[in-house]
Queue: 2 jobs
Job 1
Amino acid sequence: MPFAQTRRAFLAGVGAFALPLPARGEEPPPRILEAGPVKAQLLPAPAPATDILGFDGVSPGPILRYRQGDTLFARLVNKTEKPMSLHWQGLRGENGMDGVAPLTQAAVAPGASFDYRRKLEDPGLFCYRPGVFKEAGELLDRGLKGLLVVDEPKPLESDADILVVLDDWRLDAKGAIEGDFSNADEAKGAGRLGNLIAVNGASAPKSFEFQPGSRIRLRLANLASARIMALSFEGGTPSVIAVDSQPCDPFPPVRNTIPVTPSARYELMFDLPATEGAKARMILRAADGRDQDLLLFATKGAPRGAREPVRSLPQNPALPPVIHLEQSKKVDLVIAQDNGRWTLNGRPSKAYAGDPLFRVKRGTPVTLGFDNRTGIPLAMHVHGHCVRLLHDLDDGWEPYWRNTVVAPPGKAKHVAFVADSPGRWALHDDILDHEAAGVATWFEVG
Ligand SMILES: [Cu+2]
């Protein structure tokens, strides 16, 4: 039961799986991550199983779980028929390990392997997924994705810790993945949306039962390739405690709803009602009004005692307390369409083969504007760094860090960050059909 476990079960599990320490000076062997064909029961039985791709025989792939300060040493073994790489979404820095092919590494050919070594300096919820330009969307849609959890030294108190991978599959009537990838019309629109929402690899919803008044830590990741998910909470009290791997002061989301872009992660404490027989749920809001339940909670048994207010995870001291906007390098990216082709700053995009959008010296503050001149929401991802979303009208910013921000149709959004990690960093739309069609560029920190 890897996804939902009580604190006690989790602690017992740590003991049960403790590995012998390697001899001094000897590097432990890599964690092998084999990407290849898998069969999965996505639709409820007796519908047939679906041929998909997974890591180590499962999709979502195994949860990679470490402690803060550990080193992740993983060997991607590519047993698929496509070139591969692994992007580790949310991990800062270490350009050569960012997994964006061909920008930061060569693609890993079918049959080949590649070693990733990442020092895990920040605790939080991360994910891993293919990062090969033009191929990543199909590989992700066929099932290659997984969570990386870096535990904080002192976990916040909760009654349960639930990891949730949300996914969006496009299946035909027989339960097979529809092979209509790289559709030019979809790349001009919202991207390749699916027709089956899955929670941890099985069709939604997923049901849980807890004592009244339980506090549930929910760690959510949207690992779909295109669908921006508006997730609403009903019946309980949600408090957001981390966004895109970085802790924030706990806050109740506006209208009890969070907008989760592809590859974004949110952590919440969800307090269930204090009475027995009550219900609470997490819902996917659909634009057409056909909302869908994703998580269902029922309370049963003796109520738990009253809870203290949700505490804050320690803020990350590695992130800059101030960003000097007045001294920042200001860069604008106008994203438009010309006869159905994406353009960046008025020109057809050369993606990672073109010149960088900008170059800065290490340590430079940067203000970056995403000016969306299209009718389609974009999910713009700045690689290697954590960014602040600036307010539209003043110098303030939202009180949490982001990897990806939504640029709504016809609007400009600005982010600020300190470019403190050297290398060639991708800057692209995390709706991967958009990336493949050219909503992709890069910047260089020297
Ligand atoms: Cu990205």
Job 2
Amino acid sequence: MHFNSILVSVTEICTVGCRHCGFTGSTRDRQPTADEIGRWVAQACDSGIPEIIFTGGEPFQRFRMLRSGVGAAAGHPGRPRISVFTSSFWGRSAATVDKILGQLPGLTRLFLSTDVYHQERVPTQHVVNVIEGAIAREIPEISLCITIAEDHEEERIRGLYRRFEDRVRVHVDRVIPTPFIKTAHQVGLPPDPEHFSASCYLETPLINPNGDLSACHIGKAGAYVTLSDLAYFMGNLHEKSFQEILADADRNYEYQFLRVYGPQGVARMVASSPAVRGLFKGATFTNGCDLCYKMLRSLDGRARLREIAADPFQRELIDAIRLVRFGERPPEPRPAPGAPPQLSGAPQPVAPQPVRSGT
Ligand code: SF4
């Protein structure tokens, strides 16, 4: 299977405490050993994933683990790109920034979270120090990640970094509402397919600190709810190798449904199920992930996805779209216990078919 990158959460711990954080209110005490991080990163690199993105919690609050992961990626013959998310809380001075970045050779990108929420807790000057330090250390890419609840916040934050305009990239996303964040005006979309894209962040799975491999960033919610019965959960690296988990995911049609249809497919699931339509009557969603997560957390939503994934016609469609979109062949059926070995070669690809509405 093709992935653009993988998120590796080195710790759930973060003491910055932004009020929009999805972790707010959770215990957040899980973290692996430095050796485990190194091993998991090496396995992800062995699978050919071209970019390793370290995240948390706040990865710089467990620097030994971050250094182990960056070292494993930098020493891998696949030479992946190596990125880190941070709040820049550690950017107290130019000297501190230089000393810290000097211990992470091979780093190719910094994602700096900066928005009205982070800047309530972290001085903007710390972010500026990290940007200047990264430029001095010739880290090739610096991205500012701005999370907004209301449109005017974007301009306010962009204005803080105007002088770095030609050196930084800016990525803006909408906050996912939590019980801890209330805004005066929340932009919301009804769950109609035309509002949502057929692709999302599934080309970037997530390794959680407890070894859970999750389909996408939403797996971070595993800090406070059980996700192992949802389509996002792929397996645990303490129980299976990275490659074994990917082989299972290849045959998991609930997961493959999300890969080929994205949040647009989730919106079509809503439209096609009277039970879910009733559940979401009048509801709006800030983005595709907000819709997807609420859908899959609901019993009716899960039942609808299971129903679709068990339908042979839907499976053929999913196989066909995987072939056209990702160049992936349909998974070979697992041999029944005691069955003789197959003599023929790889199965023939399934011809693409028109997409039937109602999923
Ligand atoms: S739409 Fe769903 S599957 Fe896709 S990235 Fe968002 S939460 Fe994950």
